[in-house]
Amino acid sequence: MTDSKYFTTTKKGEIFELKAELNSDKKEKKKEAVKKVIASMTVGKDVSALFPDVVNCMQTDNLELKKLVYLYLMNYAKSQPDMAIMAVNTFVKDCEDPNPLIRALAVRTMGCIRVDKITEYLCEPLRKCLKDEDPYVRKTAAVCVAKLHDINAQLVEDQGFLDTLKDLISDSNPMVVANAVAALSEIAESHPSSNLLDLNPQSINKLLTALNECTEWGQIFILDCLANYMPKDDREAQSICERVTPRLSHANSAVVLSAVKVLMKFMEMLSKDLDYYGTLLKKLAPPLVTLLSAEPELQYVALRNINLIVQKRPEILKHEMKVFFVKYNDPIYVKLEKLDIMIRLASQANIAQVLAELKEYATEVDVDFVRKAVRAIGRCAIKVEQSAERCVSTLLDLIQTKVNYVVQEAIVVIKDIFRKYPNKYESVIATLCENLDSLDEPEARAAMIWIVGEYAERIDNADELLESFLEGFHDESTQVQLQLLTAIVKLFLKKPTETQELVQQVLSLATQDSDNPDLRDRGYIYWRLLSTDPVAAKEVVLAEKPLISEETDLIEPTLLDELICYIGTLASVYHKPPSAFVEGSRGVVHKGLPPRTGSIESPESPDTAPAGGPAADQPAVIPTQGDLLGDLLNLDLGPPVSGPPMATSTVQMGAVDLLGGGLDTLMGDESEGLRSDVGGSPAIGGSGSFTAAPSTTAATNVGAALGSGLGDLFDLTGGVGTLSGSYVAPKTVWLPAMKAKGLEISGTFSRQVGSISMDLVLTNKALQVMSDFAIQFNRNSFGLAPAAPLQVHAPLAPNQSVEISLPLNTVGSVMKMDPLNNLQVAVKNNIDVFYFSTLYPLHILFVEDGKMERQMFLATWKDIPNENETQFQIKDCSLSADAVSSKLQGSNIFTIAKRNVEGQDMLYQSLKLTNGIWVLAELRIQPSNPSFMDLELSLKCRAPEVSQYIYQAYETILKN
Amino acid sequence: MIHSLFLINCSGDIFLEKHWKSVVSQSVCDYFFEAQEKAIDVENVPPVISTPHHYLISIYRDKIFFVSVIQTEVPPLFVIEFLHRVADTFQDYFGECSETAIKDNVVIVYELLEEMLDNGFPLATESNILKELIKPPTILRSVVNSITGSSNVGDTLPTGQLSNIPWRRAGVKYTNNEAYFDVIEEIDAIIDKSGSTVFAEIQGVIDSCIKLSGMPDLSLSFMNPRLLDDVSFHPCIRFKRWESERVLSFIPPDGNFRLISYRVSSQNLVAIPVYVKHMISFKENTSSGRFDVTIGPKQNMGKTVEGVVMTVHMPKAVLNMNLTATQGSYTFDPVTKVLTWDVGKITPQKLPNLKGMVNLQSGAPKPEENPSLNIQFKIQQLAISGLKVNRLDMYGEKYKPFKGVKYITKAGKFQVRT
């Protein structure tokens, strides 16, 4: 007698037969029939046609039958809303039943029926159940509020259920408390701004008491809730930690990890000198290690979290290296994670063990794992200097195995070792060269070519080696081509006599026969450099390279701090903040670690640390690229950075990109990240890390003013800052990924040498490749329109982003928008068409010839009626009159005259918009306190509606 | 919270689905199948998969994938733990957690799932509460039910559901009152080529079978509690007592449960009870190789090592093996390339040995990697860490229970590299 019999009736009249049985008089037959219906439902068969017949069976004293009918109702009520109403009466009656099990069951089931009409009837029973004398009913009702909120949030708020739910946090029964917390947390997730879980010391105390007594699942909810609390001082933090620590010994690993989260977060507030701090550190290690003896799935999640914890507080697990040693039958996803953590824990003390292990892994069967192990050896060499020699000899041993992929990986990492320890291990080059022919992966070929070019003077036949690559130049991937170009130029600069022919050959291949703009641009740059000033060329191309960082894929510190607050969640598995990927999070709450209160250092004041600002001094993103690209970028960045604050757009793009690209790499898929980190040229890997910057710069320049752009790149000796560019705001997200099926667009507008462009970053956050991009603008106030189609050269792979500078003109059709500077944009890709609107700063429309004659100015000022004059205030500007004037001039607002009246500076200025509207301005600068000025701006214009936007432009330019 | 659950068998059929919120289409599993295809081996399917609108968190147990669908940020460990709990419950109810067992009891399964989770929140996951709500199937009961018309669904609120001891039901009665504890220790170790220990630790558990009437309050003490510095407890254990007195004090659940699990880490020097002498080599030109393995006892505290089984994943190039075993029997599966040698008991006088020739695929390059040897063994009446139970006291009830403690040491993930 098993339930499989319910599946056997697959004859044609199955539904009909069931119908008859459901309407049978015999209770037993009825129940069997309902069971058959449920059985069909579980395998996804549609039995909704039986709805009325099943509902008829609902009024029964048989609890099993009732439950079965309820099960059915939950599944099908949505598709038959009118029929579902028939069930309401029974529900309402059951909510009054003397048996608490039935009361709870009724309210629970009603909440699961996602039909509006039913939810209306739910309110009254729910209100009663929330105050039921039986805790079982109350706890069920608490969850029901969350269900109802999911269906109709407004209703829940109007009916005051949220307050009742909050009251339940103080319930006498721990299970009710836990469920109330769970329900509130779920509701709060969809309302990030609401202050639902308003935690104070009293409620925290209640939660901590309930924590000891509720079920394991309840403990998870309560711990996760506690983690959001911000203790007022270190003493409170410590007392919470003390009460949470026993949870570390729980058998349920989710409880353990949630407890770890609370402790990791609150530890931040404890002074390191405290004895308790040390005790806590010691207590954290064993439970984390224990998680690794659980099922592989649990291990995986634990390892991803340990990866974060190790980066934040390496001291916790520094003695536990051995538990991360890989067993040959671990699943691959566990192996890779363990390997990653091993490298992070590697230090001088344990490097011998680690290397022995890594060497062992390098002979395993799984190719991915072997590759990662070989790379890991290279990372050890770079991280622990004392071990470098042993690592190199281990790598050489591995090269001797002649296993193709091992050799290639080894060469890629040896390149990095050369970068880190220049002129130390060149003796191995001969061995590497022996393997030249077996290299078939672009990354390995590129690495080998880099080595040959870099050490050309020590390799007798360097020219022959490089020449051999040249034969198939056009079949190589871009990164190999770029490397080859650079390597041959290096060779030429080192041995000019024998290699002239070779260098000409490669330059012509790169510039004339290639249609890759990156390659072509680089070719031209070299060509010019070599032909105009070989000495400078030598200085540039053979310049000393910046050192590479020790740790290649550390998570950027602010992100790490945020992720620590998300230990145990999906965010911790993906190493991305939830805002980056969770679709359901309708708003973004950034969590941060609490500041240490015991210490003297005051936390950064909020206004001095803008979120996501370009943190130029992040240690995490020192590029490891060693080729020309690094050199070029340095060249390009060098002078303006040290120069006047008139930051040209090139610099900004470079800086922003360094960060953005770097982060992408860090956050991307682990192996992918590694790949592009150690790689050497622009087109490497998927995430197109930092290298995108120069290529777009080049593209912009080619598009805008080829001559001047290139000239600028070369303009090393000449004056700096000839590049005219108005202020460019940092990029903001215009189209979030969740609104556009994974496509994220951020951007800004810039104006440079008379041309306007829209600088976009397209990021693919979906799982599929995106291609076929196109862009279109709606009609707008100033006729802005794309001057060229949106060119995305290659399909955009998942997690990749691309920077594009789209040139704009102002000859499009005109329609007045509200607000005036509103721009509606449509972007199309192979997936769909997406719309967004953005506000452009008006100063991109200020033309270069906006300087009016003095006389003309006076005449026009008088001519424009006084009612067209508008006045604005700009407060707390820290610039002097001259600085203001020169800053504004950068954005084509021209100062015509300056006067000093009663100790106040007056500036008279003019500007012209692309559509020919002149705007005249009088700027009064009065010191408000010693360091700040208040500016009073009077604008006169024949079209006064623009004034407000002009003012906004002034403000943005001056405040940035 | 948990949105839906799909049960999928090894051939990729979805044989059960359950939704706790709105219905999620089966097609979401396509992403899972995709990942499964990519992973090749079933064990290698990543446990967390993201899809455009959902996340799939899965476990693989007893040849079934438990794939849960979630939509919002949820602790993945919570989901994984819950899925394991579901599998445990099936095991507990049907004796095995298999596709047939689940299909045979589909309605009970459905009722169980409904009872375990409400709107994605765990409701009742303790086995004895569930058993009060939904009676496990027995042949006798289904016969009785069909005669009397009574059902297998309990109609009273389970007593444990809201008490402070949710793991125990009230009114338990036995004629023979018994309490048994099994101290089971598994040795996880990696031994390198030369026979020295790379890594070793002991994973221990105390599994209990308690059949005591009423509300007994037990305390269990050890001769050497200091060994236990990394312990996970069943919720029934009073943590404070342990912290202060190193005594396990608890009101036990009824029936079988895991009282504690613990880890004795490598720092404390783990004894390795067996050694393996091995000589495995492949020759390039003759497409053959030699295989010679001997297993012997070492640090076994005077007890017999028994139940010894060695499994080896041979390299792909191995076609066949011609071996002779001095003891036990061996099999080699030419498809999976797994060599299994069932040794049995080790007698120190005559050490078991397996040796012979390995045939390689002709023309193929000689395998780079040497296989790891996976060893299983058992030692009765010994906890290798030296842990010993001192005494068990019972309070709160008057009868005199029968008490018993059993020790056993096993190999966990015990690997010898060659």
Structure description:
The complex is a heterodimer of chains A (960) and B (418). Chain A has 960 residues and is an alpha+beta fold. Chain A contains 38 helices and 13 strands. In chain A, strands 1-2-3-6-5 form a 5-stranded antiparallel β-sheet. Chain A has a 5-stranded antiparallel β-sheet with strand order 9-13-12-11-10. Chain A has a 3-stranded antiparallel β-sheet with strand order 4-7-8, with no helix packed on it. In chain A, a hairpin with a 2-residue loop joins strand 12 and strand 13. In chain A, helix 33 packs antiparallel against helix 35. In chain A, 48% of the residues are buried. With 418 residues, chain B is α+β, with helices and mostly antiparallel strands. Chain B folds into 3 domains: 146 residues, 2-Layer Sandwich (Beta-Lactamase), CATH 3.30.450; 127 residues, Sandwich (Immunoglobulin-like); 106 residues, Immunoglobulin-like. Chain B contains 7 helices and 23 strands. In chain B, the strands form 5 sheets. Chain B has a 9-stranded mixed β-sheet with strand order 11-13-9-8-23-21-16-19-18, with no helix packed on it. At the A-B interface, helix 2, helix 4, helix 6, helix 8 and helix 11 of A face strand 2, strand 4, helix 2, helix 4 and strand 7 of B.
Show the helix and strand layout:
The complex is a heterodimer of chains A (960) and B (418).
Chain A: H1 14-22, H2 27-42, H3 51-56, H4 63-76, H5 81-94, H6 100-112, H7 116-130, H8 135-151, H9 153-158, H10 161-168, H11 174-190, H12 201-213, H13 216-226, H14 234-244, H15 253-267, H16 275-291, H17 296-312, H18 332-345, H19 351-361, H20 367-383, H21 388-400, H22 404-420, H23 429-434, H24 442-454, H25 462-470, H26 478-494, H27 500-511, H28 517-532, H29 534-541, H30 557-564, H31 570-574, H32 628-642, H33 649-667, H34 670-678, H35 692-714, E1 732-735, E2 743-752, E3 755-764, E4 774-777, E5 785-786, E6 801-809, E7 822-828, E8 833-839, H36 854-863, E9 869-877, H37 881-890, E10 894-901, E11 904-912, E12 918-929, E13 932-941, H38 947-959
Antiparallel strand pairs in A: 1-2, 2-3, 3-6, 4-7, 5-6, 7-8, 9-13, 10-11, 11-12, 12-13
Chain B: E1 2-9, E2 14-19, H1 29-39, E3 48-50, E4 55-61, E5 64-70, H2 76-94, H3 99-104, H4 106-116, E6 117-118, E7 121-122, H5 127-133, H6 139-148, E8 178-191, E9 197-211, E10 217-222, E11 231-233, H7 239-245, E12 247-250, E13 255-264, E14 274-283, E15 288-297, E16 306-313, E17 318-325, E18 329-333, E19 338-344, E20 353-360, E21 373-380, E22 389-395, E23 402-416
Subcellular location (chain B): Cytoplasmic vesicle membrane; Golgi apparatus
Keywords (chain B): Cytoplasmic vesicle, Golgi apparatus, Membrane, Protein transport, Transport
Main location (chain B): membrane
